[in-house]
Design goal:
This protein is α/β, with parallel strands linked by helices and 103 residues long. It is built from three helices and four strands, in the order E-H-E-H-E-H-E. Strand 1, helix 1 and strand 2 form a beta-alpha-beta unit. Helix 2 runs parallel beside helix 3. The chain is globular.
Length: 103
């Protein structure tokens, strides 16, 4: 048994919140520590969005790996930036749907 459970950071578009919640639940029940995007029930300001984006990069720093929730292969601008950050910091990145072709 490892000294601590694996830590996975979930990334993906907030349009997939239900899918992220399901993956979070499944990983948690499998004994994985999950860090995920923050959620807000109301519209947020640009300043809040920038702060949440920066905070999510710190979550990637904490993680052992990144799991991108991308139904249909969709990767938005923020998620693409998070994937680039994860790669730059040496974090393994996997996808729930086939990874998009590199351009």
């Amino acid at each position: 048994m490892p000294d601590r459970p694996e830590i996975v950071c979930i990334c993906g578009s907030t349009r997939f919140v239900d899918e992220m919640r399901a993956v979070n639940r499944d990983l948690t029940l499998a004994g994985v520590i999950v860090v995920a995007p923050g959620e807000a029930d109301e519209l947020i300001t640009d300043k809040q969005k920038k702060a949440l984006d920066a905070l999510h990069l710190r979550k990637i720093d904490l993680a052992d790996r990144v799991l991108v929730i991308n139904p249909g292969g969709y990767i938005g601008e923020s998620t693409s930036r998070e994937i680039d950050y994860a790669h730059a910091t040496g974090k393994p990145v996997s996808f729930t749907d086939p990874a998009p072709a590199a351009t």
